[in-house]
Each structure stands twice: as C-alpha cells, then as structure tokens.
Design brief:
The structure holds two protein chains of two kinds. Chain A is α/β, with parallel strands linked by helices. Helix content of chain A is about 25%, strand content about 25%. Chain A has helices at about 15-25, 35-40, 70-85, 95-105, 170-175, 245-260; strands spanning about 5-10, 30-35, 50-55, 90-95, 120, 130-140, 150-160, 160-165, 180-185, 205-210, 215-220. In chain A, the strands form two sheets. Chain A has a nine-stranded mixed β-sheet with strand order 2-1-3-4-11-10-9-6-7. Chain A starts with a strand and ends with a helix. By secondary structure, chain B is α+β, with helices and mostly antiparallel strands. Among the domains of chain B are: about 1-155, Mth169, Chain: A, CATH 3.30.1280; about 270-580, Phosphoribosyl-aminoimidazole Synthetase, Chain A, domain 2, CATH 3.90.650.10; about 785-960, PurM-like C-terminal domain (Phosphoribosyl-aminoimidazole Synthetase, Chain A, domain 2), CATH 3.90.650. Chain B is built from 30 helices and 40 strands. In chain B, the strands form eight sheets. Chain B has a seven-stranded mixed β-sheet with strand order 17-19-15-20-18-21-22, with helices on both faces. A seven-stranded mixed β-sheet of chain B has the order 35-37-34-38-36-39-40. Chain B has a six-stranded antiparallel β-sheet with strand order 3-1-2-5-4-6. In chain B, a hairpin with a 5-residue loop joins strand 25 and strand 26. In chain B, helix 13 (about 355-370) packs parallel to helix 16 (about 455-470). Classes of the chains: A alpha/beta, B alpha+beta. At the A-B interface, helix 1, helix 3, strand 5 and strand 6 of A face helix 1, helix 2, helix 3, helix 13 and helix 16 of B.
C-alpha cells in the first residue's frame, strides 16, 4: 500500500492538532486535519484513512467536565461510523483531552459485557492543572502503539486526568484482562504516590486500550517528545543516547498500518 | 416554559477535590469551625423540554455516570450530626458564563427544543458550627467576589434571571457649549469620562465650532480615545525636568527616550516598531515575530481571576491584530503582589488578600492561556507590601507572522466586520477606569469594568481568522481592546473615515443603547476590513468554523467617523479632531539623586544562615507552584523550559522555543525587573532591568546582536513631580541601555495612577515598577545551555566585576537595612561581556551558564548546584572585585549587574579564557560530586557551607 493515512480531529477548543500532525508526519503518515462538523456531515471521511487521532486541548472549554460535550456529540453522530472503523482493523489514538473523549464515549476501555459506563476521568487529586514529566510503563502486550516492556518518559499537562472506576471489580478486570496500557511509574519502574502518579489515578493508570489493542488513549502527550531537544534536561544528556520516546507511539502505528493494509 | 434546576455532585467514594481546596482556603484564613465542605455544580435551565428529557439532560450531559450524581430540584440539607450551612454563588446578570453557553449549544444539539436561558452556579455545604461572622468572612474571602457574584443562603430564592428589555432609540444630547469650568468638570465626573478641564474645554471649543451640542456617544468616543490608557498622554507630554537642580527639557518624553533609541539604532531587522498592536522583528527570511506585553492591573485588583484571564486573552488579540494577524506562539506572565503572609486585619477595606489575589490571578492566566493552547513560557512574581492595594498583572504574547503579511491596508469602500464574541454590557468604561486611581469604593462602582473571558470563543476565532488571512480575504485587522469598537474602528479608519450601523453588531442580549454597543469592551472580538467581493468567501469560513461575524459598516473617504442607529445619525466626529485634537501637556518633573552610603555591617565568619534566609525570601523562592499550572509545552515547541535541571525544578534563566517545525532556529524569551531598586534610584533600576533581561537571554544561548526589548511602566500618580521625575529617570535609562546594548525597544505600554485611596484618606502608591521583556534569536537551538551544573570536575568561572553596591539588595532586606547604592551598569563592559559569552556558548565552550541577580553570587551558585544535583566549591580569591568590596558578605551577596557564572570543561579552559581576554573574569571554583556548596574566603575559611538538600528546601518551601 501507499502511505498510512491519518485524520487528526479538529473541534472548538482542541489545540494540539498542529504538533500532533507534525508527529504523525515525522512518523511517515499522510495527515489531514478535519473539523468534527465536516465528519458529522460526511462520515465517509473515515473510510479514507486508517488512523483516527483525537488530539489534546479543551474541547468546548471542558465545560461541564473534560471532553464531555465532544463525547456526547460523537456518541450521537459517529458511534456507528467509529465502531465500524475499529471493527475494520483500523487504529484510534486519543491524547489528553482525546483520551477523555474516548473514555466518555465508551470506546475505552470498551469492555463488551459492561452494561453501563464503569470508567471515567475526573479532577486531579491536587485539584489543579499541572504540566510535568512522568515515566510510563507499558502494562499490556496487546497494544499496537506500544513497545511492550519499554519504559518511556513523556510530559503530562492536564487538570482532569485521574482515572477512576465504578468499583474495585472494574479495576481488577481492567488489569487482569489487559485493558491497562500504561502505568505511571518512577525512573526505576515502580509505582508510587504524587508526583510519580501525577493525578492520583487508581492503579496508577495513565492510559487504556480496548480488547483489540488498536485503540489507545493516554493522558501524557507523546507529540511533545518527538525530537531530542524537547526532553526537559536534554542539555545534560549525551545526544547519541537520547531517543525521542514519544515518536515511537506514532511510528509503531504507522508501521502497523503499513504491515496490515 | 419549564424551569429546571440540576445539582451535580460527586458520588460518595469519589473525592470532592474542590470541596477540599475550599476547606484549605478557609483554614488558611484562620477559621477552624468548618469540618468539611461539599460542593455541587448548579445548572438553571429554562426550556420547553419535559421531565423525561430533563432526566436525559442530567444523565447524558450534566453528570458523569461513574463518579457523579445529579438531582433535579433543590436538594435538602444533608442529614447528620453536624450543622450544615448552605451557600450558593450565582453570577450577577450580564457576567459572562462560558459553561452556560456550552450547555446551551449542547442542549440544542441534543434536540432539546426551545431553550430560553441557561445559568450556572456553585453550591457549597459547609459542615460545622459556623458563626455568623465566620460565615460572612468565608463568603467574602473564599467563596465569592461581590464584584461579579451574588450569594444566597440556605433556602433563599435563587436570584431571578436577568430580564432584558427591548431598546428603543432615544438620542441623548449633552449640552456642553454653555457650561462653565465647574459644569464641564461635573459632566466629566457624572459620565465617568475621566477627562480633565483642559480636555473638556478642547471638546467644548470643537462643538462651538461645529455649532451644535454633542451626543453622549460622541463624548464617550472622545473620552476613550483620549484616555491615558489609549494615548499615553503623560508619556507623550513635554516635560521640564529638574534633575539635581539642573533643568532638562523634553518636547515629547517618549519620542526622546525609549523611542529615540529605536530610531537611532535603526536596525534593519526591525520590521514594524511602536506603530502596530505589537512590535515586529525579523525571524528568518520568510517569517517575522511580534511581541507585546500589556498590563491588566485595575480589573485584576477587583477580580484577579477574570482580570488575569482577560489580560492574557487581550494580549493574544494584540498579536492576532498585528499586521494582517500573527499566530500566537508563546505567552509570558508577571505578577506583582502584596506579601502572602499579610495578616487579614492589615488588608484595607475594598482590597483582596494577597494570597487570594495570587491564587486567583494564577488560575485566571492558567485557565485562559491553557485553553488557547499557547504555552506560557516565561514570567516572574514579585512581592512588596505596596502592591497589596494595587496588584499588577502583566501579560505578554509572541506571535509568528509571514513577512509579506506585516502591514494592513484598509481602503475606502472596504466593509467593516466585527468577528468573534457578541457585544454585551461587560467592560464598559474599562479604558477610562484604567486611567484613574482606585478607591475603596471602586468595587461597587466599577463592577461593570470587570469581565470574564471565554477562551474557546477566542480560539475558534483565531482558527478561522488564520485561514482567512492565508487566503488573503481581508485587508486589515485589529482587536477590540480597551475602548471596544470605538477604538478599533476609529483607529483603523483614522485616515479614511467610516460609517458604522451600530444596530448591526450581534448582541448578547437586547436592551443595549447605541452608546453601550459602541464602547462595550466585551472580550473576544476583532474588527477586520474586507473587500466587498471577498465577503461571501470569508463568511463561509466563519460559518464553517462556527464563528459569528457581521458587517457593521464601511470605510469612507470623508475623514469623518459617522455613527448610525437604524439609519439615524447618532454621532459624527472629524477623524482629525478625534486623533489629533487632544491638547498637549506640559508637565513638571523633579528628581533629586539621594546621597547613598552603604550601611556598615559587622563581618561574620559564616553566612550560611543569611543565604538560607535569602533563598526563602518570597522574591527569590521557587515559583514552581505557578509555573506548573501554566502549560509551557503546548504547541510542541519547547527547547528550554522554565524549570530546568536534573529534577526539572531549577530556575531557568530564559525560555527557548523552536517555533517552526522545519527549522532549528529558536526564540529566547526573558524578563528583567527589580522594584526594590526603584525607591533609591529609578535610573539604575531601569538599567538593571535591561541588563538582567539581556543576561537571561545570553545565558541560554541567544545571539547578542538580535535582541529586542519591551517596556511596561507601572507608576503612581505622575502629576506629582517627584513621581514623574522617577519615571523620566527610568525612561532616560531605557534610552541609554538600549543604545549601550544595541537592543531596540519595539513596543511598550504604561499604566499610571496605580494608587489607592483608603477609607481613612490614606494614599498608597506602588513602587515605581518597570518590566523589561526581552526577545532574542537563537541561531541553532542545539547549542542552547541551561543553568544547572553538569559534571563534577568542570571549572567554574565568573565574568563581570563585583562591587560594593548593595542598595535594594536582598541581603539588606533580610537585615532590615535600607539605603545604599543601587547596582550600576557599565554599558561598555556589560555589552562586551554579553557578546563574548554569547559567542562562547555558540562555539560550544560552555556547559552551563547562570546570571547573578537577586541574592548575588551565593544564590546563583546555590541554584546552579541544587538544580544540577552536584556540589560546588568556590574560592573568593578568584572573584574580580573593586577595591572597596573586601568583606565576604559584600562579595557573595552583592547584586552587581552584568555578571555570569559559567561552567567549563577543563579541556575547553584555554579557548574559553582566550575568549574572555581583557574582561573582568576569574576562575572561582569547580563542580564537585559531593552534594554541598562551599564558598571559602581569602583566608580559606568556609563562609558558606551547606548541603544541597537544605538549600533547595529553603528555596522551595515558601510558595509550595
């Protein structure tokens, strides 16, 4: 096939679309930015691409709660189109606000047997928005965006990134059945309190995937670490050993598409 | 129509973090009677939908199915042993409610049918035995701001929804031609025009000449256009200055100081200076960069959250309104506040507690800036008692603009469009209000000058306008800032003339008079000039992006500003009179340079305690708490972040961004300010600010020959010759500093009359405050350096001379000493040092670099050490000093300017030393593996000896 084709969603208040496009282009994808209204008017936009990305920002101001209004809009208008998109073996990535939207639409974790929503994101324990870097440990082997076992370092920037579950049983299921994609850990890979876990997420959950492994949502921003000089202390490090670890998420997605389509 | 009330709160088992945060704030006020706070969001919706649909609204839109419950109606007081106090905070009518707007459009999208009105409110349930006095204190100091909010208690009725009336045209004439002086001043006061007698007389003469009485909108237009805020009449006045008994004359202070340096330097990389909404310089062959910093002091004093938010929103619109519109790429924020530990009883009536101001202003900047997706990359926070009554909020913004889009071309026949948010009563009289002093009564009188912004409206407008710009669909653009449409249309049509049909402006609600429409300072609006043939194409973009726009008039060729309402003329002014008619002022200024003597302080053998005290002083202490809340990495452009070092928590000197995805050229952004120096010597204060801003840029690797500066003067009442004299001295320093460094000012702004009149008549003025913001070009971002120590075994150098000049120093402050000499700048050496260090960094000779500023050498070394997690051993025998700078405390705490600490690898020593030849510099130590800072004096005694953890904790503790 030709190049992997990606659509990056635009909507009122989404504001990370340009750097997300740039990251995807660096990874080798062909990228279009498309406004939610155009996709609602014409869902066939999705047919032409293999990767649908919901970038970060504050869709509709995050009024009511983060991602809530955009999630409602997507549920009402794009539920079927996106369900088919995933069933067709295609990839969906939600970053920050995009992750919040994927959870609030139910695409993540997308546990089939759940009759009602059982996972959401809410206010950080600190009660405020914070921009800080975190270490992330992949917690599943099935997510196509992630290299299993490889710890990465990425920035977070959010006020409502705390993952919570309806009950303990839901959390156990998420863990046992491989829905937990990424955990907040320290430099050695151990879970811990704030600031290792920057928002108080239950089970240190930083990102979730679905049963297919082709949908990933995460609070940290991989598009903000696609070149070495974005690392917060790159001036201390040996450049030949420094890998822009956010880029790998996009590269793996593009590679997967090239291998499967 | 049904009235629906929804309450949404967290289900038990899910933390109510807002409640917890409110409880902490209550306890911080010293109130111990509250045991717990439970919060709820309240939505009041007037709509036709029925109960079944209301259930859907509650479940699908307003609450989270996992962690929240919703309740339709008013929930009862929670049962339990503890008494509960119910408090509900509603917005006053006319205050922007972004969440309500979002809910309204989401309801429509859900198919809710006719929805008349949506409002939101916050409900608090306080548990505990709370006295009446405590309850009032909690409401006033923690929960609500009576400028814009209304509070109800217990089961009191909710405030009724604002009833709007339709407006019927009634043209109001204000007879002026026959008034005597007293009558003129009464008119000025009654209408809040803030025009003085001379100005009122000028207006009177004009209407006598044209032979009629003015209408209200004509007087308002003149008042706004002529306000201090808009024309800077003080700064442009002619001045007779008495400097130490010698008289100096200025025809136009601005043109002969700040602006003159720019003219004299005549840099070919300056694209547009002091003429547009922001100053513009070259970035590369295709791209230019613009920079503007504004203050938003008065609104922030009344409502720090809304004031700081609309401050950042406003300065972003300055960038968007520069040339044919720049794309905002970074913001800056600086706050000057009262001391956070001020006792409540020391806070004058009508003034918010500094802690509240700090928290709310940071939240305001955070919530607006982060929503715009513009990284906030640089800033500062200063504390002084005198800022308590007049807190200062500076907001800056930087934008990128194609080189071929740097100028506007409005022409006769172009249509005038207003784009973005709707016009309401918000912000009326902001420009004139900003030009006067504040009194303890202002919070009642001027609540309408306070505004809440809606960042998403601005972001949508930005997305649409950039598309239209790139397609060449409009010919001119400017923002609606202070003065609203009046300023925007008046300025854009100054050389042409314009006719405006005021009823065509989209309104938030009915009932606005033609004058209110014209002078409203409602946020998130821009004015553009569009060729008639492009109208359809541009309106299509706006509609696709869900942005409102309306044609409200056209540019003419009669050089008149004509205002109409429903076809009837309501005002007409000659553009020449409007823009050139303002009388010139002659002002007196006086400055007597105080004779300074350094206080004698006994020598000690060890100064570690002094160093810890300085690190813990509010002005030096870590501002991480503020920085983390503002997204500094949005847009993916970050190279040097505000927090640097091995633990990402060291104080970076300047931020660097890489604004284009395709180029390694960067922009460095910094600031310099030191209000502590202003009382003693405003000239040296200004020079120090310039030197500091430039040092900060140099430390990260900016080019020395491409530095542009901004000035923001915040002063007291300049009708006092002494206060004005201090300003003149600072302006003179701006000229000398810009010339000395070859760094032109490209834009500036002043905010005068920052004074407060207390209930007892006491007048409090802010310290003379000059913010210097600096923008530099980085040739290759891969060469940038940071201030954290990198490697044990590396050598430490200091460049620049240390002098016994400690006036305004932190060392004196912790010892309660006043007086002394403010650090001077030897411009020749300063410029040469900066140039050589910039070259050394570009050549890769430097591993880390940090400037010596507040707290001097000891603080700078401590910061470098704990940021890098590596110790340092320093020996003062290597320190270049003047002969009178012998005592160790002078040497380690002097705040002499133009000094840099530099870490160099041993094998680069020779090349570096050669680079610094013939400049004051010396090797003062080396980096060590042990996590300690040791500074030894000439006799090899340790005058500082502390472990890094102790130093870092002292620095981080105060503002955690």
């Amino acid at each position: 096939m030709g190049k992997a084709k990606a659509i990056v969603l635009r909507a009122a208040g989404i504001n990370c679309e340009q750097e997300t496009r740039h990251a995807l282009e660096l990874a080798g994808a062909d990228v279009r930015l498309v406004h939610i209204r155009r996709i609602i008017e014409n869902p066939s936009f999705l047919e032409d691409c293999q990767l649908f990305v919901l970038p970060g920002g504050f869709s509709y101001g995050d009024d009511v709660s983060a991602g809530k209004v955009l999630a409602g809009q997507m549920t009402r208008h794009l539920q079927d189109a996106l369900t088919k998109f995933i069933a067709d073996g295609k990839l969906v990535l939600g970053i920050g606000n995009g992750f919040q939207v994927l959870v609030k639409t139910g695409f993540l974790p997308g546990m089939k047997e759940a009759d009602k929503p059982s996972v959401t994101l809410t206010d950080n324990d600190s009660g405020k928005y914070e921009n800080r870097w975190v270490y992330l440990q992949p917690a599943t082997d099935r997510c196509v965006f992630l290299e299993p076992h490889r710890r990465i370092y990425l920035p977070t920037a959010h006020g409502e990134g705390k993952v919570v579950t309806r009950d303990k049983a839901t959390l156990d299921k998420l863990r046992q059945e491989g829905y937990v994609a990424l955990l907040y850990v320290d430099a050695e890979g151990k879970e811990g309190p704030f600031p290792i876990n920057p928002n108080g997420s239950v089970g240190s959950i930083a990102g979730l995937t679905d049963s297919t492994g082709r949908v990933l949502g995460l609070m940290p921003h991989p598009e903000r670490f696609v070149r070495q000089t974005q690392h917060p202390h790159w001036t201390r490090l040996v450049k030949s050993e420094l890998v822009a670890e956010g880029l790998s998420i996009f590269s793996r997605a593009v590679q997967y598409i090239e291998d499967h389509f | 129509m049904n009235q629906w009330r929804f309450e949404v709160s967290n289900r038990s088992g899910f933390a109510d973090v807002h409640g917890r945060s409110v409880l902490e704030d209550i306890q911080a006020c010293g109130i111990r009677s509250v045991q717990e706070v439970i919060t709820a969001k309240v939505y009041l919706i007037e709509a036709e939908f029925d109960r079944d649909f209301a259930q859907r609204v509650g479940a699908e839109l307003l609450s989270d199915p996992v962690c929240q419950d919703f309740f339709i109606g008013r929930s009862a007081v929670p049962a339990g042993p503890m008494p509960a106090t119910l408090i509900e905070v509603h917005l006053k009518s006319g205050v922007m409610d972004p969440a309500a707007e979002t809910v309204l459009s989401a309801l429509q999208e859900m198919g809710a049918g006719k929805v008349d009105h949506v409002r939101t409110a916050r409900k608090y349930v306080l548990l505990g035995n709370i006295s009446e006095k405590d309850r009032l204190a909690i409401v006033r100091r923690v929960l609500a701001n009576d400028c814009l909010e209304e509070v109800i208690y217990g089961t009191e009725a909710e405030p009724s929804r604002p009833r709007t009336h339709s407006y019927e045209l009634k043209i109001i004439h204000l007879p002026i031609r026959e008034l005597d002086s007293e009558g003129l001043m009464r008119l000025s006061k009654e209408r809040d025009l803030y025009l003085n007698l001379k100005e009122m007389q000028t207006i009177q003469d004009y209407f006598r000449r044209v032979g009629r009485e003015p209408t209200d909108v004509e007087l308002e237009t003149l008042a706004q256009t002529w306000s201090e805020h808009c024309v800077h009449k003080t700064f442009r006045s002619s001045v007779e200055m008495d400097l130490d008994g010698k008289t100096i004359h200025f025809q136009n202070l601005l043109k002969e100081t700040v602006f003159k340096a720019t003219k004299d330097l005549n840099k070919d990389w300056c694209v547009s200076v002091f003429s547009d909404n922001a100053g513009v310089i070259e970035f590369d062959e295709q791209t230019a960069v613009c920079f503007k910093a504004e203050t938003h002091n008065r609104p922030s004093a009344l409502d720090p959250y809304g004031g700081a938010g609309t401050g950042i929103g406003g300065v972003i619109r300055d960038t968007m309104g520069t040339g044919l519109g720049a794309r905002p790429i970074a913001s800056t924020g600086v706050f000057c506040l009262g001391l956070p530990d001020t006792r409540s009883e020391e806070v004058p009536k009508g003034v918010l507690h500094p802690r509240k101001v700090l928290k709310s202003a940071v939240a305001g900047m955070r919530d607006y800036g982060n929503r715009m997706g513009t990284p906030t990359v640089n800033g500062a926070v200063y504390f002084d008692d005198r800022y308590m009554t007049n807190p200062l909020v500076f907001c800056g913004n930087i934008g990128l603009i194609p080189r071929d889009k740097c100028f506007k071309h409005p022409q006769t026949g172009h249509l005038v469009l207003v784009v973005g948010g709707r016009t309401g009563r918000d912000g009326i009289h902001g420009a004139t209000f900003s030009s006067g002093e504040i009194t303890h009564k202002h919070e009642d009188i001027f609540s309408h000058a306070v505004q809440i912004g809606n960042a998403i409206t601005e972001k949508k407008m930005l997305d649409a306008l950039l598309q239209a710009r790139d397609l060449g669909l409009y010919e001119a653009i400017t923002d609606c800032g202070a003065g609203g449409l009046s300023s925007a249309v008046g300025e854009m049509g100054a050389n042409l003339g314009a006719v405006v049909d005021l009823e065509k402006a989209p309104l938030k609600y009915s009932g606005l008079s033609y004058t209110e429409i014209w002078i409203s300072e409602a946020q998130e609006r821009m004015v553009i000039a569009v060729k008639p043939e492009n109208l359809d194409a541009i309106m299509k973009i706006f509609s696709e992006e869900d942005v409102e726009a309306a044609v409200i008039g056209r540019f003419t060729d009669d050089k008149k500003l004509t205002l109409q309402y429903e076809g009837r003329q309501v005002g007409q002014l000659d553009m020449d009179f409007l823009h050139e008619g303002l009388c010139k002022y002659d002002r007196k200024a006086r400055w007597k340079t105080p004779v300074s003597v350094e206080p004698v302080m006994a020598a000690k053998t060890n100064y570690t305690e002094d160093l810890l005290a300085i690190l813990s002083s509010y002005n030096v202490a870590s501002k991480e708490w503020v920085i983390r809340q503002c997204d500094h990495e949005a847009q993916g452009t970050s190279v040097i972040k505000p927090l640097v070092g091995v633990a990402n928590d060291g104080p970076g000197d300047a931020a660097v961004i890489r604004p284009l995805f395709c180029s390694d050229r960067g922009l460095a952004i910094s600031c310099g300010m030191n209000p502590c120096y202003g009382d003693l010597d405003p000239y040296r204060m200004a020079l120090s600010g310039i030197d500091e801003a430039i040092r900060n840029l140099i430390c990260v690797g900016a080019r020395f020959d491409r530095i542009a500066l901004l000035d923001n003067f915040c002063w007291g009442d300049c009708t006092r010759p002494e206060t004005f004299g201090a300003l003149v001295r600072a302006a003179q320093a701006c000229y000398d500093g810009a010339m000395g460094f070859g760094a032109p000012f490209i834009s500036g702004k002043d905010s005068l009359n920052n004074e407060f009149v207390c209930e007892d008549g006491r007048r409090i003025s802010i310290p003379s405050t000059l913010l210097i913001s600096a923008l530099g070009i980085v040739e290759d971002i891969n060469r940038c350096v940071t201030m954290d120590l990198k490697q044990a075994g590396n050598l430490l150098f200091i460049a620049g001379l240390t002098r016994n000049e400690m006036g305004g120093s932190h060392y004196y402050q912790i010892h309660g000493q006043k007086g002394g000499t403010v650090p001077d700048v030897n411009l020749e050496t300063a410029a040469e040092t900066a140039r050589r260090i910039s070259e050394a960094i570009a050549e890769g000779l430097v591993r880390s670099c940090h400037d010596c500023s507040e707290g001097g050498l000891a603080v700078a070394l401590a910061e470098m050490a704990f940021s890098g997690g590596l110790g340092a051993e320093a020996d003062l025998r290597g320190l270049p000093t003047t002969d009178d700078c012998i005592q160790a405390d002078r040497q380690i705490f002097s705040e002499s300017n133009s000094r840099y600490l530099i870490e160099v690898e041993p094998d680069k020593y020779e090349r570096f030393a050669k680079k610094m030849l013939n400049l004051p510099f010396g090797q003062i130590g080396r980096v060590i593996g042990e996590k300690r800072l040791i500074i030894r004096n000439g006799r090899q005694q340790a005058v500082i000896d502390a472990d890094l953890e102790t130093l870092k904790q002292a620095w981080q503790r105060p503002l955690k």
